[in-house]
Amino acid sequence: MEFTARQIADFVNGTVEGNAETKVTTFAKIEEGRTGAISFLSNPKYTHYLYDTQSSVVLVNNDLQLEHPVKATLIRVDNAYECVARLLQMYESMKPRKKGIHPQACIAETAHVGDDCYVGAFAYIGENVTIGKGTQIYPHVVVEDNATIGEGCILYPNVSVYHDCQIGNRVILHSGAVIGADGFGFAPGENGYDKIPQIGNVVIEDDVEIGANACVDRSTMGSTIVHRGAKIDNLVQIAHNVEVGEHTVMSAQVGIAGSTKVGKWCMFGGQAGFAGHITVGDHTNVGAQCGVNSSVKGNESLIGSPAQEPKSFFRSSVIFKKLPDMYRDLEALKKKVDELTK
Questions:
Q1: CA dist list (Å): 278 to 43, 65, 243, 263
Q2: CA angle (115 as vertex; 211, 172 as ends), nearest 5
Q3: What is the full per-residue pLDDT of the chain (342 aa) written as tens digits?
Q4: Which residue pairs from 24-29 have beta carbons closer than 8 angstroms and sit at least 24 positions apart in sequence?
Q5: Which residues are catalytic?
Q6: Which of 123, 211, 216 is nearest to 135 (CA)?
Q7: HEC profile of 158-219
Q8: What pTM does this model have?
Q9: Contact, 219 vs 238, CB < 8 A?
Q10: Cα distance between residue 341 and residue 319, in whole Å
Q11: If phi over 0 gives left and psi between -120 and 50 gives alpha, with beta otherwise, what is residue 235?
């Protein structure tokens, strides 16, 4: 696929500076630019690469002030990062989609597979499963009995969707994701732990993306729910009866314990952990490795473990670094007090 700078500028509502007929055929990071590639600049830390990059076209923000001449053709836009995302989406959508059912796929007679679907080799589609039109089921995917998969979804190799789970439209599940495994429910007894049957399911709404080896557990009763537009990174654990709000995003290795309710438009950094049976309000930002053990009203930013607001955390961090000196001073003071007492 080949595009001119002018065509790209028209698509992203940008302004060309330089040769509008410059052609590009691929994408590249600005520091690894090459002829025929388009790059973008949104982080000021990378500005110095702009003057030496070999990329033919670079997307930049309108407010960028040039300090030196540049060789590349520039396309100025309001938000370069957002525009390159749109271009990548367009590029991805133009790739041919897989279609057809591989003869080595195993599909139950009672299952319904919609039009223009792809089902790869050794995929298993169970009894009474419904697959919406245009969905792609890659090799070694397992969709168990009575599950529902919507339209335009992508299930990459080795995804497992357990029985009775419901997946919405345009959902992407990356390799190794497990949807609907049993929640971690055990009751202590005289001879060990008795398993509590998990008779609920998982509901994944439209436009959700779930990363590789992430797990969303089925509920004890009712549903574990991931609402529309949520984006969940690799190796995330969402426990039974959790509810994740619309457009919430969470980075790798986040863990959310059972029955916690997470609001809309939240952002969770890597390895953040959440206690069970709490509520996290809308627009809550939680830093990496943060430990949240009580409910949060929303519209807050938290870091540290236990979680606290950033100013308090940083003040505490300064004191923590001084603790060894403070301890020595305290011991010396105690000795002087003892001497005076004697």
A1: 36, 47, 11, 11
A2: 5
A3: 789 999 999 999 999 999 999 999 999 999 999 999 999 999 999 999 999 999 999 999 999 999 999 999 999 999 999 999 999 988 888 888 888 999 999 999 999 999 999 999 999 999 999 999 999 999 999 999 999 999 999 999 999 999 999 999 999 999 999 999 999 999 998 889 999 999 999 999 999 999 999 999 999 999 999 999 999 999 999 999 999 999 999 999 999 999 999 999 999 999 999 999 999 999 999 999 999 999 999 999 999 988 888 888 888 888 888 889 898 989 999 988 988 887
A4: 24/56, 24/57, 25/1, 27/84, 27/87, 27/88, 27/91, 28/55
A5: 240
A6: 123
A7: CCEECCCCEECCCCEECCCCEECCCCCCEEEECCEEEECCCCCEEEECCCCEECCCCEECCC
A8: 0.86
A9: no
A10: 30
A11: left
Q: Which of 202, 185, 291 is nearest to 242 (CA)?
A: 202
Strand partners, 262: 244, 280
CA 44, 49, 51: angle at the middle one, nearest 5?
110
Q: Which amino acid is at 68?
A: H
Burial of 302 (0-12, 13-18, 19+ CB in 10 A): buried
Residue for token digits 């001073």?
329
Structure tokens, 219? 């509920």
Amino acid at 195: K
